[in-house]
Amino acid sequence: MTSVAARVQDKTLRFVRAVFSRYYRSEPPPPIEVREPQQREFAYWEFGKQVMVRHLSFQSVGELLRRLAEVVPLHAYRSSAYFRYPAAPMEEKGWEGADLVFDIDADHLDLPCADEHSYRVCPVHGLRNSDDGKCDECGSGLSDVEWVCDRCIEGARAELIKLLNVLTDDFGVSESEIEVGFSGNRGFHVVVYTERLRKLDQMARREIVTYLTCEGIDPSLLGLPWKGRRVRSLRRPSLDEPGWRGRIVRSVASQLERSGEVQSWLEDPDWGALRPSRWRELISRAISEERVNVDPVVTQDVHRLVRLPWSLNGKTGLAAARIPLDRVEDFDPFEEAAVLKGPPVRVRVLFAPRFRIGGGEYGPFEGPAEVKLPVHAAVYLILKGLATLASQ
Ligand SMILES: [Zn+2]
Ligand SMILES: [Zn+2]
Questions:
Q1: Closest of 284, 279, 281 to residue 218, by C-alpha
Q2: Which residues are in the CB-under-5-Å shell of ion ligand 2?
Q3: Nearest-angstrom CA–CA distance, 213 and 293
Q4: Is 110 annotated as catalytic?
Q5: Residue 290 burial (CB < 10 Å; 0-12/13-18/19+)?
Q6: CA angle at residue 17 from 12 to 21, to 5 degrees?
Q7: How many domains are there within the chain?
Q8: Same domain, yes or no, for 82 and 168?
Q9: Which domain holds residue 258?
Q10: Domain check: are 179 and 256 in the same one?
Q11: Across the strands, what pairs with 47?
């Protein structure tokens, strides 16, 4: 990188840090809450540093907020685990349990929009594509852009709603023990605080993942018409049964309603109505639609660090907003998590598809151009690697 480019990068990073500091030093402070803070480990990444600062402990949320205001981190986390000595080295911390955590990320969902917004940019010429990963005009290395669109968010939200239903309906978790948050980028987090689940070990958490994702599910064990099961030997289906059997039956019913092939099935469900091979198709489809696509690694990990609610995500400048359970269906991350404030700023945008943030719509920016943007939009593009401060 030339020294001019490096200076622009430095200046841009200092600008983003100043915007973040306005957020962490605001009065009143951001509504960051942590349950049982004395037992948690805290951690953060600082601007421009390559190492995570870990093994921090605070006696209160107030103390934590003062540290965040002082440090102004790029990312900030707390442990899902409860420790006797949170500030001790890992092997001496004294693990006393961990919240059950789930991560749903649009990037892991194989959404059809992913191909439409996979971009590569040259730091000078903007949007470029080449097989060798170098700009065809200047030879600079191209970088991949992690773009997120409304369909990404809706895809992740659909998984989130399925997860919440299984947690409350199948596991009997009460709503007051569930915390839902936006990740600040392209997904959602769920934390379950239920005390009797805290001690679950890695294997038990792995089983919960298996249950959610239907890994290795055998429909014949649920009394469904599957390979080798004679239809007449099966219990009659009913739409209000619990667990996966009920969920699959309801999905099959709604598929039949859509296709119109068995008109009477909703009133009078009966395994005799179709051929076994057709049931297998309907059941396979039910499983692939109803399975909950959580990240297995996150849930199994009993030492996971999770993003502090209402801290800023350093990949976007959006807040990891808490979402009340009655707002899960209509929470709009590009509006409600766009918390950064400040005067509009001139940036040099390399490229950006049309996007909306904080009540406005911007772009598309086809090629490199200088534009004035509200601070949350400018920071969003900067952190995605698509803009730098304009040199004036
Ligand atoms: Zn180039
Ligand atoms: Zn998308």
A1: 284
A2: 113, 149, 151-152
A3: 6
A4: no
A5: middle
A6: 150
A7: 2
A8: yes
A9: 219-290
A10: no
A11: none
